[in-house]
Specification:
12 helices; TIM Barrel; alpha/beta; globular; 305 residues
Length: 305
């Protein structure tokens, strides 16, 4: 189905069994929970989905199972986070064969490419499939910055349709728009500046904490869509201690911990990641439990259309 490029797209977690084997049933149960909450699309195999911790055949298993389960109800994107451009091209082509609706493409992993190399990477990967692409810019995490000027240079690649802007600098939204006009659709890519990005012109949000608080996340989005800024701000302030977890180096563990606290699945992650322990765990659980106890009272079923 066509990608709408608007709304909340969870960066969906990948569930694992206690022995760290792939838990497809758990992953699909969570996908269904998110769909019921009213999300607008899914991003499978992103950073939060532990893309780089999965074997190639496991990635395909996750995508095939998700495609079958979702059955065209909302669009599905797959993260493309490979070590080489050739590997990214192969996986992009495989995603198209599986029937995934779009791609979220990252720079090549490990090697920190310069501007010329980064632009060549995205041009090359774009040629590997016909799928629309959300370009993922996250210099704090991956060490490669795709600047507004680089996006302008890439503007002649038709399948590069949208940008997940995760530089943590909300000025980038305005700079990209000033540099490229309406060429790209912009998504907020960092949870704890999401409202600021939306107010500056982002029309979508790839969210991590939505995995643990899908109804409240939908509430915040709906209030922003309706222009109810003060009400949205109240929800955002409640949400912020949780949203800061999205920019922590252990974001995957913390998001899964929050999901576990909500009864939304196990917190098992793939090594070298390990679940948080000790004082770090207690501090995180205190934030999570406080948020659960003070959840906004405006959440209601009528907002889940």
């Amino acid at each position: 189905m066509a990608v709408s490029w608007r709304g909340v797209y969870p960066a969906v977690t990948t569930a694992f069994n206690e022995d760290q084997s792939l838990d497809l049933a758990g992953t699909l149960a969570h996908v269904e929970r998110l769909i019921v909450s009213g999300v607008h699309g899914l991003v499978m195999l992103g950073t939060v989905g532990e893309n780089c911790s999965l074997e190639p055949h496991e990635k395909c298993e996750v995508l095939q199972a998700t495609k079958q389960h979702v059955a065209g109800r909302i669009p599905i994107l797959s993260g493309v986070a490979e070590y080489t451009t050739a590997g990214a091209c192969r996986f992009a082509a495989e995603c198209q064969k599986i029937g995934i609706d779009g791609l979220m493409v990252l720079p090549a992993m490990v090697y920190k490419s310069d501007a010329r190399e980064t632009i060549t990477h995205f041009r090359t990967v774009a040629k590997a499939s016909d799928l629309p692409i959300l370009v993922y810019n996250n210099p704090p995490a991956y060490g490669v910055d795709i600047t507004p000027e680089m996006f302008a240079e890439l503007g002649d690649v038709p399948t590069l349709e949208a940008i997940k802007e995760s530089s943590e600098d909300t000025r980038r939204i305005t700079d990209i728009i000033n540099q490229t006009g309406n060429r790209y659709t912009i998504f907020a890519g960092v949870d704890d500046v999401a409202m600021e990005c939306i107010l500056m012109g982002a029309v979508g949000w790839v969210s991590g904490l939505v995995n643990a608080f899908p109804d409240e996340n939908r509430l915040l989005w709906d209030l922003l869509e309706e222009g109810k800024i003060q009400e949205a701000l109240s929800v955002y302030r409640w949400y912020m201690p949780l949203l800061h977890m999205d920019t922590d180096p252990k974001l995957v563990q913390l998001i899964k911990l929050a999901m576990w606290a909500r009864g939304f699945g196990a917190e098992t992650v793939r090594q070298p990641r390990l679940p948080v322990t000790g004082a770090e765990r207690e501090r995180s659980l205190a934030i999570i439990h406080r948020a659960i106890e003070t959840r906004p009272g405006l959440v209601n079923q009528s907002r889940k259309g």
